[in-house]
Every structure is written in C-alpha cells, then in structure tokens.
C-alpha cells in the first residue's frame, strides 16, 4: 500500500505521461497586437429575466456572422468581488477586428442593423469601450 504522497506523485507523473497535463518552460501569454477591440456591455430592461437574457445572447450569436469579425466572446459577469469590479451588467460582447475600417463596416452591416432592430428593446443601457494598441 502506497502512502498518500507517493500516490499523488505517481498520479501527477501518469497525467503528464498521458498528455492530460502539458508542461512547457518559459510559456508566455499571447499578446493581441494590431487589432481593433470593441467591447460592449448590456444592461437588461428586465433585470434578471432569463428569457430576455437568452434572446440577447441569441441575437449576439447571429451578430457574430458579420464577416469582418475575427474573434468574439459573449460573456456574463464573473463571480469575482472586489471594489474595482462592476458586475451590474447582464451580458458583455467582446469583438476583435483587424482594424478600425473593419469595425466601421460592422456598424453599418445589415446583420448589425438587424440585431439593433430586433434586440434594442431588451436593454436599458449599453456602454462601449473601443481600444487600439498603445503606440
């Protein structure tokens, strides 16, 4: 019978050997460069309405079909609580474009216009943060 320490050590070795855990030296985070970031926060009119939240998420999923979008993320407030964190929004929409021209094209894209037409009745407030690289 092995000790607890031996069991944990052997389990860890087996996970690495089996490819369940990958260890790399000097792994660094990937920086997003030369992109236009568009981050939108939505507050629902019917705060706490699961139906309205689902409709907004569905609308954003349709909106993700705009061809100039390179990457997107639909999110909700994380369960983190510190004085600097604002968790009052319902849904966030993070979008990555190649450049400002692609973002401008997105604003007038028929898919975006239809999203606003079909979903704007769901929100009471929208805040947008656009950013580009520090030069």
UniProtKB/TrEMBL annotation:
<feature type="domain" description="Stress-response A/B barrel">
    <location>
        <begin position="36"/>
        <end position="131"/>
    </location>
</feature>
<dbReference type="InterPro" id="IPR013097">
    <property type="entry name" value="Dabb"/>
</dbReference>
<protein>
    <submittedName>
        <fullName>Stress protein</fullName>
    </submittedName>
</protein>
<dbReference type="Pfam" id="PF07876">
    <property type="entry name" value="Dabb"/>
</dbReference>
<dbReference type="InterPro" id="IPR011008">
    <property type="entry name" value="Dimeric_a/b-barrel"/>
</dbReference>
């Amino acid at each position: 019978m092995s000790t607890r320490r031996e069991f944990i050590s052997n389990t860890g070795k087996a996970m690495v050997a089996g490819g369940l855990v990958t260890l790399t030296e000097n792994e660094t985070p990937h920086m997003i460069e030369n992109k236009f970031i568009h981050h939108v926060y939505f507050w629902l009119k019917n705060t706490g309405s699961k139906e309205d939240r689902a409709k907004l998420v569905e609308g954003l999923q349709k909106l993700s079909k705009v061809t100039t979008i390179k990457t997107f993320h639909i999110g909700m407030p994380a369960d983190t609580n510190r004085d600097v964190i604002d968790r009052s929004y319902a849904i966030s929409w993070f979008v990555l474009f190649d450049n400002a021209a692609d973002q401008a094209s997105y604003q007038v894209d028929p898919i975006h216009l239809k999203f606003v037409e079909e979903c704007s009745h769901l929100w009471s407030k929208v805040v947008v943060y656009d950013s580009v690289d520090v030069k």
